[in-house]
Amino acid sequence: xxxxxxxxxxxxxxxxxxxxxxxxxxxxxxxxxxxxxxxxxxxxxxxxxxxxxxxxxxxxxxxxxxxxxxxxxxxxxxxxxxxxxxxxxxxxxxxxxxxxxxxxxxxxxxxxxxxxxxxxxxxxxxxxxxxxxxxxxxxxxxxxxxxxxxxxxxxxxxxxxxxxxxxxxxxxxxxxxxxxxxxxxxxxxxxxxxxxxxxxxxxxxxxxxxxxxxxxxxxxxxxxxxxxxxxxxxxxxxxxxxx
Amino acid sequence: xxxxxxxxxxxxxxxxxxxxxxxxxxxxxxxxxxxxxxxxxxxxxxxxxxxxxxxxxxxxxxxxxxxxxxxxxxxxxxxxxxxxxxxxxxxxxxxxxxxxxxxxxxxxxxxxxxxxxxxxxxxxxxxxxxxxxxxxxxxxxxxxxxxxxxxxxxxxxxxxxxxxxxxxxxxxxxxxxxxxxxxxxxxxxxxxxxxxxxxxxxxxxxxxxxxxxxxxxxxxxxxxxxxxxxxxxxxxxxxxxxxxxxxxxxxxxxxxxxxxxxxxxxxx
Lengths: 243, 268
Hints:
The complex is a heterodimer of chains A (243) and B (268).
Chain A: E1 4-11, E2 21-28, E3 33-37, H1 44-51, E4 58-63, E5 66-67, E6 75-78, H2 92-97, H3 105-119, H4 134-146, E7 152-156, H5 164-181, E8 184-188, H6 192-198, E9 201-206, E10 208-213, H7 215-218, H8 221-228
Parallel strand pairs in A: 3-8, 3-9, 6-7, 7-8
Antiparallel strand pairs in A: 1-2, 1-4, 4-5, 9-10
Chain B: H1 8-34, H2 37-57, H3 61-83, H4 87-107, H5 114-121, H6 129-158, H7 160-165, H8 170-211, H9 215-240, H10 244-267
Helix pairs in contact in B: 1-6, 1-8, 1-9, 2-3, 2-4, 2-8, 3-4, 3-8, 5-8, 6-8, 8-9, 8-10, 9-10
């Protein structure tokens, strides 16, 4: 059974001349880290939101064989940005509590303790959200997305608003969790070097799906030229290769 | 003051003030979190059409206003989704359109309408048994809804997408919240009037936001500040012989300014 099956997914915004995402079909086997790449405006965020049924779309999405809305308990989602009032007196602990409201107290405490230890949240769990750095906020949102032990994790540009060291830590953590928890991950990203090192599958999107496969096969100069145009410079370093 | 409280009208006013103070404050926290301060103002002003219709047809003005307010609130979220117009744009239509209808309907009423002034600027000391019963009923509905759905409402307010993925019925929650807000605004009209009612929603929550260190603090502090403002304002208006609605709002505003100044001095 596939972790994720997407068939003929199309998103058309009212009044727009052409679809934002057009006839996208692909499937992911369990345990894969698939990364969606494409230029700004290529429909990466729209595709992820349509897959999660957060955006009206036509087509079919199944998660572990279930229609996506029925599969919500199997899905964790980290948005690109969280629009909130920075003066809001809401602590990290309160953010983590929200999706666990229906859980018995003991189980909730156990999950919170796991999240604090796994994502290194203890230092800032009681701080208001507005005082957190981009990296701390992303770790908090990643923890929130994984609190209910999902099988499919969807991340929208997790590196947005995070510095280079935070980015590295985030992806290290993600790789470890995929290994430990048998997660399937779908990520949109514009960091091609990260894609090359982390992804097991790459999806090239520019409204339509232009290609899909392992990064070493897909990330060719020709494919990148087709995707991003002539201005993209791409430096690929093999491990152990001298610069 | 003790002697004043022996009068039934003062007892009704005090009870009504405390109930209004608690429920406007609790919903005010959500209004401030959602940054939708214009909503209460628009519904309050639009409810003038309901008040006018009630006076014209001989129906209970507040009940009629409640019908109009709830009708508008219940449809706003659906209209927002279908037209893709921003909520504040829709509210910018609702406020003047329904208020203008209210003014036209009022012009059809014969003679001077003393009751109308109390709807515009509040008159907590004239709260009748019927109005108190209406306020109490709305209080029970609001508290019941918040007790059952408080976490889902806050979740949907903070992050709609994550809330939906967690199984929260976001659209239903937001429609419920808008209906409650309309009911609370209508229940508060006797206390401070159509013109000033938004102050009860916004100022206590804004003051508490300056002090609170967490969402829990915010939800505890805001009703305290709201109740202190209403009861304190009533007492002040009794002794100073000032109009009660504006006195309540001014006291609430002074508390906000004092806390703001204290915060500014502490930081300096």
